[in-house]
Design a protein that fits this description.
Blueprint: E1 2-8, E2 11-20, H1 25-37, E3 42-46, E4 50-53, H2 55-70, E5 74-78, H3 82-90, H4 93-96, E6 99-100, H5 103-109
Parallel strand pairs: 2-3, 2-4, 3-5, 5-6
Antiparallel strand pairs: 1-2
Amino acid sequence: MDIAITSFEHWQIVSLSGKFVTKAIDQVRKIFDSFEKKNQLHVALDLTKTTHMDSSAISCLVNCYKRLRDKNGAIALFGANNDITGILNIVGLTNTFPFFKSKSDFVQSIGINATN
């Protein structure tokens, strides 16, 4: 899995490409650890290029959500394909996280003008 990090205002955008599965969990967890240390507590996951997500990835998202929430931060998701959206819906995460169809929907919801 490839990971790219950008930012908009006070949000860190983490773009995940490929399969978000067990072997990628440590890498994602380290990114969230780094954000916490820098007090960057608003994180959006761009799932536009994510092709698959397993149960360990879902657990990772929930744990990261709880960590950020406990520090008055937030996590949002956008761009998930229909399969991933279906899985997240079944486990109730589309009601737990702010969940957007696209990056532009996410950006519009937080009141930032998207430039890319």
